[in-house]
Design goal:
globular, mainly alpha
């Protein structure tokens, strides 16, 4: 069975009653954890982006604290942390949030006890995040670009 396009879905949603929309949203939230997380962000955290960023940073701190310093386990742990971070960034959809959180991730990675310079995989992971940050900075307003470039110099 082919999936309907986004345009078709939008047209159908216009004709549904408020109760039917409510039931659809609840059903989507029950279906997958990602849907529930996105819905939680949109309902509770989208109006205060600064608080959301601080919460994600706090969560990052906890994950880095529980990270095993061995290179093999550090690779796996950092990939998991980065995967979760990218998901949080995707929920926000704002480039400022993306840049701020990726810079924070790189700072945490650099200040951690992990010797990522001795591992090619970890060094590439770090370098790729720096490239992602630079790419995202290029899409921001000039004033924000200057501020974030100053933060990048520390990395």
């Amino acid at each position: 069975m082919p999936t309907a396009s986004l345009v078709q879905i939008k047209k159908e949603l216009k004709f549904l009653s408020e109760e039917d929309l409510f039931n659809l949203v609840i059903r989507l939230a029950k279906l997958k954890k990602d849907n529930k997380e996105l819905l939680s962000y949109l309902l509770f955290e989208a109006d205060n982006e600064h608080q959301y960023v601080e919460g994600v940073k706090k969560h990052l701190d906890e994950e880095f604290a529980s990270l095993n310093p061995g290179v093999y386990y550090a690779k796996k742990g950092l990939r998991k942390i980065l995967r979760n971070l990218k998901k949080q960034i995707k929920y926000s959809g704002k480039k400022e949030t993306e840049v701020e959180l990726l810079i924070y991730f790189c700072k945490k990675m650099k200040t951690s006890s992990i010797r990522f310079s001795s591992s090619t995989v970890l060094q590439n992971l770090y370098d790729n995040q720096i490239k992602s940050i630079e790419k995202a900075i290029g899409k921001l307003h000039e004033d924000l670009q200057f501020d974030f470039k100053m933060m990048m110099e520390e990395l």
